Amino acid sequence: MNKMNRYLVSSVLSGMLLLSGPQAMAKGEPMYDFLPSDTVIDNVKNNLQSHGVDVSNLQVDADAQGVVQLRGEVASKQEVESITQIAKQSEGVYAVLGALRYETGEVVPAPVPEGLDPMMDAPAAGNEATQQQIDAQ
């Protein structure tokens, strides 16, 4: 009899949960309340300024879901990381996409991809025998 009571109680509870779930979801209430994009932009800019960041060289955009995009020139990689972290902590921000640039100060030549002739800047043609014929001409 005890086993039967447990089965009955668990069946009733399961049925109640199943019936109440769709009603809660059917209210049409969003799972997350998004702020207007202008409000999110203002929040990000104000938060950056309160942390001493000059926002005059930064462009801040946001969409209706709280995805923020940052653009502009900054002084260093550390500043990129700091600005991105501060923006993420701003109210209404769901995610941050960064397009912030900084100069490293050093000039590094691009590596030559395998198969390219650095003198001619063109792919090597065909197999080795064909390449020797081209070089001989």
Question: What's the SSE blueprint?
Answer:
Layout: H1 2-26, H2 37-50, E1 58-62, E2 67-73, H3 77-88, E3 95-101, E4 116-117, E5 122-123, H4 128-136
Parallel strand pairs: 2-3
Antiparallel strand pairs: 1-2, 4-5
Helix pairs in contact: 2-3
Brief digest:
The chain has helices at residues 2-26, 37-50, 77-88, 128-136; strands at residues 58-62, 67-73, 95-101, 116-117, 122-123. With 137 residues, it is of the alpha+beta class.
Model description:
It is built from four helices and five strands. The chain has helices at 2-26, 37-50, 77-88, 128-136; strands spanning 58-62, 67-73, 95-101, 116-117, 122-123. It has a three-stranded mixed β-sheet. It has a two-stranded antiparallel ribbon with strand order 4-5. Strand 1 and strand 2 form a beta hairpin. Helix 2 (37-50) packs across helix 3. The model has no long low-confidence stretch (mean pLDDT 76).
